[in-house]
Amino acid sequence: MIAHIEGKLLFKSPGHVIVSVNQGVGYGIDISLSTFYELPDPGDKVTLHIQTYVQKDSLKLYGFSTPDEKEMFLTLLNVAGIGPKLAINILSGISPHELRSSILTGDMDRIDAIPGVGKKTAKRILFELKEKVAHSISQAERESLGQFDGREILRDALSALANLGYDKREARRALSKIWEENSGKITIEELLRKTLSSFLK
Predict the structure, then answer these.
(1) CA distances from 181 to 14, 23, 80, 83, 154 (A)
(2) Full DSSP string of 75-124
(3) Domains of the chain, with CATH numbers?
(4) In the predicted model, what is the mean pLDDT of residues 154-163?
(5) Are the C-beta atoms of 63 and 49 separated by less than 8 Å?
């Protein structure tokens, strides 16, 4: 089973890369958007953590920029109804850190906001993974997740944007992105200003 690939990045696009290794062999690898944003330019050296997935008569490789993302990918596969394609899609819409936070705090709205998930799948993720995630994280990360949980600010900001007429799903995604980019160290005024600016781009 292939677990690690290091070589020259021949091609990259959102969702897929080709990496050339020894003797000119090129591997096609599916990736999340999170990993895509971490990739170097084509022609440069790249290292990916790999999960090999065998299904019937096909073999697919899934690549991750960090061991943490790979671990969360495998965790998501334990949920009924989630296959590799949906797991990659989920990790394209939320970081492993924020996903663990959402699971532990029961934030179904945040998970439901990921394109392609829906309420039924969001409920299954919360129900089937809450205990598993709670037992797997370290004390340091548990404290970090607690610091991340500025739910009052996010809720108030979402309410303000909804009152201005913005779609709740789009507003929630934009707020979460700005919040994460600032590591939660942001006032509600700054959060709203930056989110509104992002809508104008």
Answers:
(1) 20, 40, 31, 29, 14
(2) HHTTSTT--HHHHHHHHHHS-HHHHHHHHHHT-HHHHHTSTTTHHHHHHH
(3) 4-65 (2.40.50.140), 68-148 (1.10.150.20), 151-200 (1.10.8)
(4) 83
(5) yes
- pLDDT at residue 135 in the model: 76
CB 40 within 8 A of CB 6: no
pLDDT digits (tens, 9 = 90+) for 65-116: 999 999 999 999 999 999 999 999 999 988 898 898 888 888 888 899 888 8
CA-wise closest residue to 70 among 88, 83, 54, 86: 88
Tokens 């919040």 belong to which residue? 179
Please compute Rg for the chain using Cα positions: 18
Question: CA triplet 60, 51, 141: central angle to 5 degrees?
Answer: 145
Other C-beta atoms within 10 Å of 21: how many?
A: 12
């929630």: which residue's tokens?
A: 172
d(CA 161, CA 152): 14
Strand partners, 59: 54
pTM: 0.69
How far is it, in rounded angstroms, from Cα 132 to Cα 115? 24
Reply yes or no on whether the pLDDT at 150 is more than 70: no
